[in-house]
Amino acid sequence: MQIEHVELDFVQLPLKAPFQTSFGTDVVKSTWVVTVLAEGIRGYAESVADVEPLYNEETHASEYFCWKNSVLPRLAGQEIDTPEQVDRLLEPVRGNRMAKAAIEMAIWDWFARSQELPLWKLLGGDARRSRIPVGVSIGIQPSANELIAAGLAYLDQGYRRLKVKIKPGLDVAPLTALREAVGPDVLIMADANSAYQLRDIDTLKALEPLNLMMLEQPLAEDDMIDHAALARELTIPICLDEAIRSDEDARKALELGACRIINIKVGRVGGHSVARRVHDVAARHQAPVWCGGMLETGIGRAHNLHLSTLPNFLLPGDTSASDRYFAEDLIDPPFQLNADGTLTVPTGPGIGVTPNTERLKRFSTHHESWQVGQRWIGGGIPHGDPTSF
Ligand code: OSB
Ligand code: MG
């Protein structure tokens, strides 16, 4: 295939409730919905950067310019025979993994649709994994009572594990209260989004009696050395999120002992091809992985579920049902939680879900249609004013 057209919709979908992490609070999910068109077939994905560079350094704006100046010029005019080729064509582009991922994922969806196969098959997933066990990620709550109420409500709905966002000062007390409220058997973990330093080790050790499954990304987003030092002192297994950006990062982290578990986010690592390699490296090190999330709409959620069919996704993911986030999702039908705490992997061609046109229009605040072949795509890297198009 050769890419003929790329459509971008900047979407702002209200969240049911504010989502607070150690780095900020989101009240709306904003994302670029990316559609790649060729031969009358459309491939869909969404990007996972945010307005500000708080989770990592990418933003909606950096993605836009990276697509325009670096990613699409390298794909335009190329005959792409397999989705794996995209990762190789984009290899010269440093960083900007969320930008690369959104286009690469849309092309994976395009190929799966063109072959009338579900994406999981193209990715090499396991046919027996048609239902993916999922948990829920609970943002920082104003009080321990509100955390307990949220946790109990999600368990009641059937979620299999609770992930609790923490930050200094809102860690040991709320987690202890939650553990007491739900009893010893519920799977609980914590995610710090880089809010601690090695000198906070006494606080982190105070979490040890709570029987947490793991502690996610406690230290700096680009660190492995201090995580390895912490791992030697802490009985709670460390899981890395932000710090794993590639299969090479995964290898180094596991060899250093910086983590025992990896949270894989397709966007963070630059697409399905890299995500699969991260999965394979972890499997070789006997380290389980699970699929993280970035509050995606149903489009990104579908991609996440297909990836989760690979065999080393051994722990419940953050890929919760649509109604955990939104009153209305972009796709039909929305993802629903099965009674056994799983989400069903869609079986249709590609990601198996398609955006609802009316809702995509209604929640889109900005639309662009880029025809490959125009000056700024396919014409090499532009040298002039990058904002003129
Ligand atoms: O660190 O996993 C994270 C959401 C936004 C940014 C970072 C993270 C998260 C989540 C939510 O934890 C996971 C989800 O429900 O999609
Ligand atoms: Mg995380």
UniProtKB/TrEMBL annotation:
Sorted alphabetically, which keywords does the UniProt record give?
A: Lyase, Magnesium, Metal-binding
Positions the record marks as coiled coil are none
InterPro entries per UniProt = Enolase-like_C_sf, Enolase-like_N, Enolase_C-like, Mandelate_racemase_C, Mandelate_racemase_N_dom, OSBS/NAAAR
Q: Name one GO molecular function term.
A: O-succinylbenzoate synthase activity
Sorted alphabetically, the Gene Ontology BP terms of this entry are: menaquinone biosynthetic process
Question: SMART domains, per this entry?
Answer: MR_MLE (SM00922)
Record's keyword annotation contains Kinase = no
Q: Which NCBIfam families match?
A: menC_lowGC_arch
| Protein's name according to its UniProt entry | o-succinylbenzoate synthase
Native organism: Sulfobacillus acidophilus
